[in-house]
């Protein structure tokens, strides 16, 4: 019945909590020493972003500079990082081979849960790898053997509806197991510029770019509805990053530039600047909600990557030496309480 309702385009359940009053109420508290669980796919894990994090399954590709680690350090929280590259909503709710369900890390003692999931269910970023392969194969000299690239997949309405249903179930279980936890949904960063703005770092056709943009838009809408239904905060990194695509002066994503050696992270994924910006924006909303920083001297403002930084920001070689965030003149994060009130605008 739920699947049918989602296909019919119905709104989120009417019993949605008012996030502004319940989830984002500015009641001062410290999360230092409290338990934080990070759930998500590669946009949370940080594959190939140095340095690699030990202890996690190698195929998850977790980085010591991913946003959950930067955020936990900032607020002095005890992090259980269950993010894993390639994860779908199935892998949050159930096991993935030898990897337990990500959601099993959430307990009644958990006080913060961040979630970045749903993109792999729709081939959101996977399509970009396929589109890149197709684009470059077409540029090979005639007679050259071309690679088998596969096809760019357009999700069906059933697949969109299933993704939303799965994300609703993730939020429901988190709320049931950890009713005192702050629940934060973090949107996927925007991987492509607006139509007409493609560049050598985004080697895909306009046709495939349009498909990717549409998937990103639908995914952000799904995430927003899920957050509204369960009184969560939405950190709209899709909007914050719109001026920081691989084609922009200060990119937060790597794209797929010709000859790229992978030293700053996996292609079509976040670089260090993107992870730092994501941690900054989440942190800004937590402090707005009254959460005290473990490091009082650190200023947090959304979009805090200062102008004049190099195009690719190199992460610190040693964990724990992340540069301090430099605040923007005015708050510009596009995070929203699920109720939509108090939303900053650019």
Give a written overview of the molecule.
It is a single chain. By secondary structure, the chain is an alpha/beta fold. The chain has a single domain, classed as SGNH hydrolase (Rossmann fold, 3-Layer(aba) Sandwich), CATH 3.40.50. Helix content is 31%, strand content 9%. It is built from ten helices and eight strands. It has a six-stranded mixed beta sheet, with helices on both faces. The chain has a two-stranded parallel sheet with strand order 1-7. It is globular and about 65 Å long.
What labels would you give this structure?
346 residues, alpha/beta, Rossmann fold, two-stranded parallel sheet, 10 helices, 31% helix, globular, disordered C terminus
In terms of topology, how is this protein built?
Elements: H1 2-7, H2 19-22, E1 29-30, E2 35-40, H3 42-45, H4 67-75, E3 78-81, H5 89-93, E4 110-116, H6 126-138, H7 157-177, E5 182-186, H8 206-229, E6 233-235, H9 237-240, H10 272-288, E7 291-292, E8 335-337
Parallel strand pairs: 1-7, 2-3, 2-4, 4-5, 5-6
Antiparallel strand pairs: 6-8
Order of neighbouring strands in the sheet with most strands: 3-2-4-5-6-8
CATH topology: Rossmann fold
- Structural category: alpha/beta
Supply Rg. Answer: 19 Å
Overall pLDDT level: 84
Find the count of extended strands (DSSP E, 2+ residues). Answer: 8
Q: Specify the CATH class.
A: Alpha Beta
Structural domain tally = 1
The ordered H/E elements are: HHEEHHEHEHHEHEHHEE
Which second-level CATH architecture applies? Answer: 3-Layer(aba) Sandwich
State the low-pLDDT regions, or none. Answer: 8-26, 297-337, 339-346
Shape: globular
Number of continuous helical runs: 10
Report strand %.
Answer: 5-15%
Helix content: 25-40%
